[in-house]
Amino acid sequence: MTENILVISGSTRAGSNTTLLVEHLFGKDVNHIELCKSHIAQYDYDDNYAVEDGFQNIVNQMLLSDLIILATPVYWYTMSGYTKVFLDRWTDLVTTCKDKGRALKGKRLAVIAQSTSEAMPQGFELPIKLTAEYMDMKYVGEVFWDMRRDLDQSQKLQLAINQWTNG
């Protein structure tokens, strides 16, 4: 059985460093969504979203995936705004779309973060790890890459990712 991997990137621009890293690690054929192209609205308590809101389309792709990877740049010591808005919308999955939220149970969730710093900020992964726990998903880990380094030196990242993909 082939592993179905979905990478969801939260950079503010298409073709970003995050995209470069994802394509280096997985190739250009991986199922990869760039949130900056997806028109996802902020969470709305009244469930009033525009027809073109892309959140449910992404959730549908998540439901078809074995491994969901959130890839994000580090902005001011935390995930990007696009990634945060996307995670905030998971509230829909425990309120108005509970069937889809329940269907995420057991799916694997991981994080790829990048910046031009030497290390991921302490606690960076915690909101995503706790979200996975709340949704009964399996959090399988996180990797970080300093984009000042040559991507050809990223073998340790690939080893960690191989563990995620081997379930």
Characterise this structure.
With 167 residues, the chain is an alpha/beta fold. It has a single domain, classed as Rossmann fold (3-Layer(aba) Sandwich), CATH 3.40.50.360. The protein has helices at 17-26, 55-63, 81-88, 98-103, 126-134, 155-165, and strands spanning 5-9, 31-34, 67-73, 108-115, 138-146. It has a 5-stranded parallel sheet with strand order 2-1-3-4-5, sandwiched between helices.
Short overview:
The chain has 167 residues and is an alpha/beta fold. 32% of the residues lie in helices and 20% in strands.
CATH level-1 class: Alpha Beta
Global outline: globular
Mean pLDDT: 95
Total of domains: 1
Low-confidence stretches: none
* Strand order in the sheet with the most strands: 2-1-3-4-5
Number of helices: 6
**How far is it from the N-terminal to the C-terminal residue, by CA?**
12 Å
At the fourth CATH level, what is the homologous superfamily? Flavodoxin domain
SSE order in H/E notation?
EHEHEHHEHEH
Number of strand segments: 5
Helical residues, percent: 25-40%
Any guess at the CATH architecture? 3-Layer(aba) Sandwich
* Fraction in beta strands: 15-25%
What would the CATH topology be?
Rossmann fold
The biggest beta sheet is recorded as: 5 strands, parallel
